[in-house]
UniProtKB/TrEMBL annotation:
Entries under InterPro entries matching the protein: PUA-like_sf
Protein name, entry field: ASCH domain-containing protein
Top-level division of the source organism's lineage: Bacteria
Amino acid sequence: MTVTIADAYDARLYAQARHEAEPTGALFTASPRPAPLTARQQRLNFELLGQAISPRHQAPPTDPEPTAIRALTIKPPWSDLIALQDEQLAKRIENRVWTTNWRGTLLIHGGQTIDKQALALPAVREVLPDDYEPIQGHIVAVADLAGVHADDGACTRWSEYGCFHWELRNVQTLQQPVHATGSQRLWKPNRQLLDQITAANPALTTRLSG
């Protein structure tokens, strides 16, 4: 099946495929409503991506300091839940209404804005310590984006219905979070930021050398 831009304009898909949509946690905290993407729209999203309609996550070919590493800004407490080391409790699925073909080392950046409604959710409260303080505006962990799959029900306790589920593996928490300014979608960290991370967290030197 060949998908054209015209095919996607009759729904929200094209805009969602090219622009940042609702941040993580929005569907957890919003009132009940239809899934943001139907199964057909999810398939179209994958096919549009395959036609390179949304390549903005790619590094410029003339970049003087190329790196294969990318970063993703996520609202606390969701970013801090990813940074947890207990695999039974940690969030290893990131929910998005857009997908990507990119795979590799991913910096987890805690955004400046806190999802305050999420802090009242029982599933969140039972995992976070009583004295929890959100880490805002900092890189808090490094992970591998191992895959992305369309909503298949509830693959983990943290999965949101109707979203693409980004599969996070090999998560390492930064013992010393590093300040950074985030951005929408996948963004490319510069070498200076990577050097700051490894200087504060020497155990990550080899992993962030690419």
